[in-house]
């Protein structure tokens, strides 16, 4: 400022605090990016868990089809084993279809894995289907 109180030629407006606003904006963007990665990562993990549980349940059921057991019909026993295997892998069996007999068969299992955290407006779980059996 000059002696008479005028700002003079070439004076720039005061920019104090603009760096603080820039840092706050950058930090907010970084926090949002971490939040998106956290949510998407949760869905990716749930998808992998569902696929693994479905694969293992279908394989266990197909193996049970080939193992003789006299007291329970083969189809019921296979789906029961698939449900137990899915549960051990943190999933819930949604459906189980057995086609064929003890020699030539296919077992199709669908499981669902719930997300550990629910987000408003987004799905609460992931489902996967797997098939296993003998080759004709």
Task: Please explain how this structure is put together.
The protein is an alpha+beta fold. The chain has one domain (18-133). It contains two helices and three strands. Helix 1 runs antiparallel to helix 2. It is rod-shaped. The protein starts with 17 loop residues before the first helix and ends with a strand. The relative contact order is 0.16.
Q: Counting H and I runs of at least 4 residues, what is the number of helices?
A: 2
User: What is the terminal-to-terminal distance?
Assistant: 94 Å
The major β-sheet equals: 3 strands, antiparallel
Derived from helix and strand composition plus strand pairing, the structural class reads alpha+beta
Mean pLDDT: 84
List keywords for this structure.
single chain; 136 residues; alpha+beta; 2 helices; 47% helix
Concise summary:
With 136 residues, the chain is of the alpha+beta class. 47% of the residues lie in helices and 21% in strands.
Element layout with pairings:
Layout: H1 18-66, H2 74-88, E1 92-100, E2 105-114, E3 125-133
Antiparallel strand pairs: 1-2, 2-3
Helix pairs in contact: 1-2
């Amino acid at each position: 400022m000059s002696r008479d109180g005028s700002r003079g030629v070439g004076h720039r407006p005061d920019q104090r605090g603009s760096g603080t606003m820039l840092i706050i904006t950058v930090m907010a963007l970084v926090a949002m990016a971490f939040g998106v990665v956290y949510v998407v990562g949760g869905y990716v993990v749930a998808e992998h868990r569902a696929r693994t549980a479905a694969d293992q349940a279908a394989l266990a059921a197909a193996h049970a089809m080939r193992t003789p057991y006299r007291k329970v019909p083969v189809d019921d026993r296979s789906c029961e084993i698939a449900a137990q295997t899915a549960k051990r892998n943190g999933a819930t069996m949604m459906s189980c279809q057995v086609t064929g007999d003890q020699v030539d068969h296919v077992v199709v299992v669908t499981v669902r894995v719930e997300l550990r955290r629910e987000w408003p407006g987004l799905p609460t779980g992931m489902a996967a289907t797997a098939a296993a059996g003998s080759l004709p």
